[in-house]
């Protein structure tokens, strides 16, 4: 679909979907140049060669002690990356196979696991082994993005990703990472916004659940801005009428500046239009880009566990502050957004490393 403005060259084109891109990305230009909305493309069986200087490591949100699990690595191009070495905090080193994934064994002790590789890191919590006699139930977010990966948790899943099959409205989703209690999947290229049924099959279990798929669509400033002018970017949440939290990240602040900072976390309006507005200012002519994604449902229990883990690697003078925040989440879960704001400030002043990874994990859980 293409729209052309008569008094300037400005168009919006829709591209095919690209595998495993976690967010919809709008790339464009200020006054007098082209705009295009890029979307993820269909999943491919073969992984692309990794980009050495940056990757994204994907772990299941929870692992089971003493059992196998699968992680995935994405290259800078958003595709599964083969041949990437990942160091685990329990001393193991794994290398992703041609599918961009790697199977490993979770240690029998420990409360969390860190994965590090090619300048990236990720964290996951470790739960005790679940007895076979315990009931097998499934949990997943009530709202999913058609463009983003999502988690499913429940006893009875397979630690190897390929042992699990996930379908959304009958269409297969790609299982990227897995453990016996949680997995991470990506909707297929034909996922449509609106009510959705999800089926999960693993050895010995079969689940059915319902959820809602949402597509985040962008509307750039109109008319196109000249340097120095202000306007607004509109994000439409299609597929659901309820209010939802999103994060919009500016990737080119030297061209198009967000008035309230490079990252904003607005709440959509709800209703039939269900939109959020970000105020912007044009700084210079040129291409600009930004991303948007749904914020996950608040999980104060997991956030508190990550903060306890962060205490163990923090300096002595930082441990007390982290302990206070963990206690606040446990005793006053309704203050989660206040804690999230504090964690963002702390993380901003924390160098990259294990502590920063755990702080980010805690904040992401909120």
Helix content: 10-25%
How many structural domains?
3
Q: How much β-strand is present in the residues?
A: 35-45%
**N-to-C SSE string, H for helix and E for strand:** EEEEEEEEEEEEEEEEEEEEEEEHHHH
Evaluate the radius of gyration: 21 Å
Instruction: State the low-pLDDT regions, or none.
Output: 1-52
What is the CATH topology assignment of the largest domain? Immunoglobulin-like
Mean pLDDT: 83
Helix vs. strand class: alpha+beta
CATH superfamily of the largest domain, by name, is: Immunoglobulins
Write the layout of secondary structure elements.
Layout: E1 24-29, E2 36-38, E3 56-58, E4 62-64, E5 68-74, E6 85-88, E7 93-95, E8 101-105, E9 112-117, E10 120-127, E11 143-145, E12 150-153, E13 165-168, E14 171-178, E15 182-186, E16 194-202, E17 205-219, E18 230-238, E19 246-250, E20 256-258, E21 263-264, E22 275-282, E23 287-294, H1 300-313, H2 316-331, H3 336-348, H4 354-364
Parallel strand pairs: 4-10, 11-17
Antiparallel strand pairs: 1-2, 1-23, 3-5, 5-8, 6-7, 6-9, 9-10, 12-15, 13-14, 13-16, 14-15, 16-17, 17-18, 18-22, 19-21, 19-23, 20-22
Helix pairs in contact: 1-2, 1-4, 3-4
